[in-house]
Design goal:
By secondary structure, this protein is an alpha+beta fold. The chain is built from 6 helices and 16 strands.
C-alpha cells in the first residue's frame, strides 16, 4: 500500500467506511485512524465511530510489502466473468489471512489464480494483495457461496449492494433444539467477558435481523433455513444460540458433535445484483458431504429441491 485513496460516504462509521473502501479489516482501519492517516474534509479525525456526512475522506495507508503468498489452491468456482468470481468455499478454509495464519486461505488462492509468483515476486503490488476483492466473508468452518470482486469498481458496487441490503442470503444449519420460526431482531455485540465471542446485547451491540424457518425435524434436532438481513460477526450462530438451538458441532456457541467436525452451517444460496449490469444473479452451492451425512446420521431426511454435493448437479 502507500498510495492515497479518496472517497465519499454518508451515514457510515468512519472505520467501517475505510475498511470497505480499501478492502481491509476493521481493526486495520482503526489503527490507521489512530495513527492520523485518515482525514475527513480538511481535518484529521481520530474517532473510529465518527459518522460520515458525505464529506471527502482521504486515507494515506502506510507503505508495506505484502506478506500474503500466492498459492496454487483449488477452489470450486460457481461463476466467473470479467467483474466477479463466485466460489463454493470448502469448510476449514479461512476467507483471508489472520495473525499466525498466512497460508491456505481464500486470499492465497486468489493471488495464486490471478497474481502467480514470478521470479519469487508477485506480479502486482496493489492493496488487493492483502484482501483481493473480498466483498463479504464466511467463518472458517462455514462453507458455501462466497463472492469476490475482480476490480475496484466491482468491489464498490458489490459492497454497496450488501450495505443497501439488496443481497438475499440463504443458509442451511443443523441445530440441537428447535428454534422459534419467524424473524428475530436481536442486536449483537462483543461478549463482555469472552472477547473472542459475540453475544446478543454485549458490548456496543449493533442491529441484527435474521429470518428462521424449520425445514425438517428429527427428534431433538432440526434442519433450519436462516436468512440474515444484516451481516454481523457470527450472526446466525449467535441468534440460534439465543433461541436455545445452537448449531450442531459449534464448539464456540454450543458443543462438539460426534457427527460432524465443524459447525453445521452452509451458505446455500445467494442472490445479488451484477456489479456492471444490475441484473440479479442467483448462485447455489450444494450442501457438502459432511453436513449431508451428519443429518442422515441423526435420522433426518433432506427435503426435495435441496442440492447435495454427492448428487449430480
Amino acid at each position: 500500500m502507500g498510495s492515497v485513496v479518496r472517497f465519499r460516504r454518508e451515514g457510515l462509521r468512519l472505520d467501517q467506511a475505510v475498511a470497505e473502501a480499501l478492502g481491509v479489516s476493521r481493526a486495520r482501519a482503526q489503527a490507521w485512524i489512530a495513527q492520523g492517516r485518515v482525514r475527513v474534509g480538511e481535518k484529521v479525525v481520530s474517532k473510529p465511530a465518527y459518522r460520515l456526512k458525505g464529506e471527502e475522506v482521504v486515507v494515506a495507508p502506510p507503505e508495506e510489502r505484502p506478506w500474503v503468498v500466492p498459492e496454487d489452491l483449488a477452489l470450486p468456482v460457481l461463476y466467473e466473468d470479467e467483474d466477479m468470481l463466485v466460489l463454493n468455499k470448502p469448510p476449514g478454509l479461512l476467507t483471508h489471512p489472520a495473525p499466525g495464519v498466512y497460508t491456505g486461505t481464500v486470499v492465497n488462492a486468489l493471488l495464486g489464480r490471478y497474481f502467480p509468483l514470478e521470479g519469487g515476486e508477485a506480479q502486482a503490488s496493489r492493496p488487493e494483495l492483502v484482501r483481493p476483492g473480498i466483498v463479504h466473508r464466511l467463518d472458517k468452518d462455514t462453507s458455501g457461496v462466497l463472492v469476490v470482486a475482480k476490480h475496484p469498481g466491482a468491489l464498490e458496487a458489490l459492497s454497496q449492494a450488501f450495505r443497501d441490503r439488496m443481497v438475499m442470503k440463504r443458509y442451511l444449519a443443523l441445530t440441537e433444539g428447535h428454534p422459534r420460526e419467524g424473524t428475530l431482531i436481536a442486536p449483537i455485540g462483543r461478549h463482555p467477558v469472552e472477547r473472542h465471542k459475540m453475544h446478543v446485547g454485549g458490548i456496543a451491540p449493533r442491529y441484527a435481523e435474521t429470518d428462521f424457518a424449520l425445514l425438517k425435524v428429527s427428534g431433538p434436532y432440526a434442519l433450519v433455513e436462516a436468512r440474515p438481513h444484516t451481516g454481523r460477526t457470527h450472526q446466525i450462530r449467535v441468534h440460534l444460540k439465543h433461541l436455545g438451538a445452537p448449531i450442531l458441532g459449534d464448539e464456540l456457541y454450543g458443543k462438539r458433535s460426534p457427527h460432524i467436525g465443524r459447525q453445521a452451517l452452509h451458505a446455500y444460496e445467494l442472490r445479488i445484483p451484477h456489479p456492471r449490469t444490475g441484473r440479479v444473479l442467483e448462485f447455489l452451492a450444494p450442501v457438502p458431504q459432511d453436513m449431508a451425512a451428519a443429518w442422515r446420521a441423526l435420522g433426518g431426511e433432506w427435503p426435495e429441491g435441496i442440492a447435495l454435493a454427492e448428487d449430480p448437479v
